[in-house]
Amino acid sequence: MTIKHITVQQAHQQQVAGATYLDVRSIPEFQQGHPQGAFNVPLLHLDPETGQMRPNPEFLAVVKANFPRQAPMVVGCKMGGRSQQACEILASAGFEDVTTFYYLYQDDRQQRWGNGGIYGNHDRFERQAITQRVGVSYR
């Protein structure tokens, strides 16, 4: 399956039309800011001992438990690598409509989800914790 790539504006339009926005960045990245309505299931976690990113072994199980495989899903991260990898994993697991895009959260103010007020004041967003619904703890 070929993974679709879209722009930030197209991603926002898809989310407004009902697509799920899945943010696969780490929990600290997500807490720094995210689009309203985004769900965070990290593909990787920061290992506090080594300072290196490590795979989240619960990624696929958490997504399967919380999202229908037929529903459209926009998957995003900071630079595009993690969202591409997540889309490949999800497509291989039978998710039928996954799309990736990227935004340079810190550097590209024009392409950032916040352009035009879409992002809003990221400090006011609270983390929508899928983990609370399924009882999974991310550390």
3D structure, described in words:
With 139 residues, the protein is an alpha/beta fold. The chain has a single domain (4-120), classed as Oxidized Rhodanese, domain 1 (3-Layer(aba) Sandwich), CATH 3.40.250. It has helices at 8-16, 27-32, 59-66, 81-92, 130-134, and strands at residues 4-5, 20-23, 39-40, 44-46, 53-55, 73-77, 98-102. The strands form 2 sheets. It has a 5-stranded parallel beta sheet with strand order 1-7-6-2-3, with helices on both faces. The longest helix has 12 residues, at 81-92. It is globular, with a radius of gyration of 14 Å. It starts with a strand and ends in a 5-residue tail after the last helix. Mean pLDDT is 78; it is low at 105-111 and 114-139.
